[in-house]
């Protein structure tokens, strides 16, 4: 609510929140939609959404002049555009799971909230109607990505398999960016005999912001899902901070590397599969990919949720491993330092992780070693301490991203409890998660 004096002024002018207005102050003219006041903001500050999509706050003073330009608009409901089906275009199914891409500003709090219906994407991105036709649109959840887990991954996999087996040419999954690479990894392992593209798309900035990346990310994702030759799960997001092109990157070799930049998703230990332009141009950058083919797809959704991801750090207490084992943990992934180190030959022997790791493995709990360096791969033999850790029977995770190793271990343990078989499966390259050799071109790509 605005202050009493501001509200009295607006009532006198018969202006309501949602009206398009012209406001003049200090010989400057502003036109836009009058928005609700942010709950924690200045009650005497008028909020306008300008035509360019940005909001501006204008302090209410005696010299302010305001007039209504058009009628009242309802702010909480965007008009849902009816999507015109064009039979000559590829049929793609869209699965929505919430996140910033399906969000708008909540003008009561000033924060972003999940408030989209999937159909509202057409209002935001009408260009989609000329690229693909949607076979099916389904809202799976309206959650921030930090609230998604393995049950959501299973649902995504089952729905994607169902749609692909019923004739969809590809799948777009809209998703929050913070954990999108967990979900893309999960589907990479769960989609058995995948023969069509599954494209994850998100946004770093909500669709009602002038700098939103929603439009280009969805347009480029539509081109990948509808026209590319990739039978892969991948993420399609801005490749640069400007609106030039997107990267489509393999779902097990990609990570969110910045909290807020539009080009936050970078390939890790791999090249992007392709550059994708909004006009539909697709430039292959990595020839090592599975190609589109025919056949039925199966969702292998078995997953063991009792898996932990631990980070080794100076002074870290290894008793946490014992606690996890006692609590019934089924597998542990450790983000070691450098080539895969954990505290080993410390001046205080009780701080060494080695006996605790060995105790876990002796208790039939597999331990996988990855590196918190993100780029590069772990190695068991370079240093003495690495050789000591190797003697416990740990599984060296090659160049897998820690988050991918965590997801893969949960998927593997759901299929076998035998430590020897678990090691064999963890070191088997199922979805491009392990590179045979490190390519120097991939660092900081």
Give structural attributes.
Rossmann fold, 3 domains, eight-stranded mixed sheet, single chain, five-stranded antiparallel sheet, SH3 type barrels, 23% strand, 445 residues, alpha/beta
Share of helix among residues?
10-25%
Category by helix and strand content: alpha/beta
Provide the gyration radius in Å: 26 Å
Mean pLDDT: 90
CATH fourth-tier homologous superfamily of the largest domain: L-asparaginase, N-terminal domain
Shape: globular
> How many individual domains?
3
- CATH architecture assignment name of the largest domain: 3-Layer(aba) Sandwich
Instruction: Fill in the CATH topology of the largest domain.
Output: Rossmann fold
Spans with pLDDT under 50 lasting ≥5 residues? Answer: none
The termini sit apart by: 48 Å
Number of helices: 10
Please indicate the percent range of residues in DSSP E strands (runs of 2 or more).
15-25%
Instruction: Summarize the main sheet.
Output: 8 strands, mixed
Strand segment tally: 23
Main sheet strand line-up: 9-6-10-12-13-14-17-18
> Any idea of the CATH class of the largest domain?
Alpha Beta
């Amino acid at each position: 609510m605005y202050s009493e004096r501001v509200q009295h002024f607006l009532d006198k002018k018969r202006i309501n929140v949602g009206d398009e207005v012209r406001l003049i102050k200090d010989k400057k003219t502003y036109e836009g939609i009058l928005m609700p006041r942010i709950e924690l903001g200045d009650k005497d500050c008028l909020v306008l959404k300008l035509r360019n999509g940005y909001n501006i706050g204008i302090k209410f003073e005696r010299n302010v002049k305001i007039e209504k330009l058009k009628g009242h608009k309802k702010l909480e409901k965007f008009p849902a555009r009816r999507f015109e089906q064009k039979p000559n275009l590829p049929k793609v199914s869209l699965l929505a799971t919430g996140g910033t891409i399906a969000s708008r500003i909540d003008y009561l709090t000033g924060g972003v909230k999940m408030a989209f219906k999937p159909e509202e994407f057409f209002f935001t991105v009408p260009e989609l109607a000329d690229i693909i036709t949607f076979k099916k649109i389904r809202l799976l959840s309206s959650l921030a990505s930090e609230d998604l887990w393995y049950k959501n991954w299973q649902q995504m996999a089952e729905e994607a398999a169902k749609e692909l087996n019923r004739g969809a040419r590809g799948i777009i999954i809209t998703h929050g960016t913070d954990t999108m690479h967990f979900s893309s990894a999960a589907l990479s392992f769960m989609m058995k005999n995948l023969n069509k593209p599954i494209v994850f798309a998100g946004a770093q900035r909500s669709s009602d912001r002038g700098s939103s990346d929603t439009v280009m990310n969805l347009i480029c994702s539509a081109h990948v899902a509808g026209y590319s030759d990739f039978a892969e799960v991948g993420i399609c997001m801005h490749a640069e901070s400007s609106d030039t092109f997107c990267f489509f990157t393999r779902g097990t070799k990609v990570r969110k590397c910045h909290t807020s930049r539009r080009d936050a998703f970078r390939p890790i230990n791999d090249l992007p599969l392709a550059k994708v332009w909004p006009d539909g141009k697709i430039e292959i950058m990595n020839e090592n990919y599975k190609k589109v083919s025919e056949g039925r797809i199966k969702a292998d959704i078995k997953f063991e949720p009792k898996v932990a991801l631990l980070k080794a750090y100076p002074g870290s207490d290894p008793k946490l491993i014992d606690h996890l084992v006692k609590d019934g943990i089924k597998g542990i992934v450790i983000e070691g330092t450098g080539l895969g180190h954990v505290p080993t030959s410390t001046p205080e022997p009780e701080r060494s992780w080695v006996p605790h790791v060995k105790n876990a493995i002796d208790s039939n709990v597999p331990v996988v070693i990855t590196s918190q360096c993100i780029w590069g791969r772990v190695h068991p033999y370079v240093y003495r301490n690495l050789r000591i850790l190797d003697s416990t029977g740990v599984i060296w995770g090659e160049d897998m991203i820690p988050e991918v190793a965590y997801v893969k271990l949960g998927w593997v343990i759901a299929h076998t409890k035998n430590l020897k078989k678990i090691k064999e499966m963890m070191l088997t390259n199922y979805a491009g998660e392990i590179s045979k050799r490190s390519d120097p071109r991939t660092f900081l790509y």
